[in-house]
Amino acid sequence: MNFEVVRPVSTDFFEWAYYLLVVYWPLFYNGIKFTLLIAVSGTLVGLFIGLIVGGVRATKINPTDLALAKWTKRILHLISSVYIEVFRGTPMMVQAVFIYYSLKPVLQWSPLVCGIFVVSINTGAYMAEIVRGGVLSVDTGQTEAAHSIGMTHWQTMTNVVLPQAVRNIMPSIGNEFIVNIKDTSVLNVIAVSELFFMSKSAAGTYLRYFEVFFITGAIYLTLTFTVSRLLRLLERRMDGPANFTIHGSQSAAGAFISVRGEKTKQED
Predict the structure, then answer these.
(1) Looking at the domain 13-243, which fold is it?
(2) For residues 41 and 184, is the Cβ–Cβ distance under 8 A?
(3) What are the C-alpha distances in Å from 246 to residues 76, 134, 263, 267?
(4) Which residues contact 186 (CB under 8 A, 6 or more apart)?
(5) Domain ranges across the chain
(6) Cα gap 111→148, rounded to integer Å
(7) Is 0.85 surpassed by the pTM of this model?
(8) What is the pLDDT of residues 78-120, one digit of tens each?
(9) DSSP 256
(10) H or E, element range at 72
């Protein structure tokens, strides 16, 4: 059913907030879509970059390595260190403006594509250190055990270390995702049509900035709160001991495994 919303004649805050929300909800909706698209894409690509760079950073130079392997590791460590320091040490807004206008004549890319690229490489710099910390948090005995059964360094990292490291750093990954939802607002400097950019367009019509950005703040809070609850649920699902708990001794006839409340008899 179509209905007309009458523009408020008073200066009442809630009347104006309701009016602006109803009239400009398509702008807010489109802004939310682009914000989530950039945040999700940037976090996933940044995590992929972080896994590679963090894995390189966590690789140790062993005395038994060949000279070529030692120099290769040193060069990779240097490149990854420069990448991390540059993108962690400069504001994302500056990165967005510099990268967009410097590469636009060559790539002819849209602000949205550039925004995803900037968020991805910026997130990757932070994720690299998060991943490195997660790798170091895994007990070294597991790496030694993997090597003792003939696993290569790559097999050990992908099959033993990284799966445990990713679980350990899940809270930090979730935190980066929430930060990215908020930090997409800086991309308005290159005209990315995210939530903050759309809010400025809505506020400029009637010059009701207070009401519009109250709505915008409420939307950001709703997004981050919802995402944080979903990520917490994902963490609980990934917690093995919460779902599979061994009671007693596996060698004992009376031992059983509890699988989400169901008991499975352990065979002799």
Answers:
(1) MetI-like fold (1.10.3720)
(2) no
(3) 43, 26, 10, 13
(4) 91, 92, 93, 96
(5) 13-243
(6) 51
(7) no
(8) 999 999 999 999 999 999 999 999 999 999 999 999 999 999 9
(9) E
(10) helix 67-89
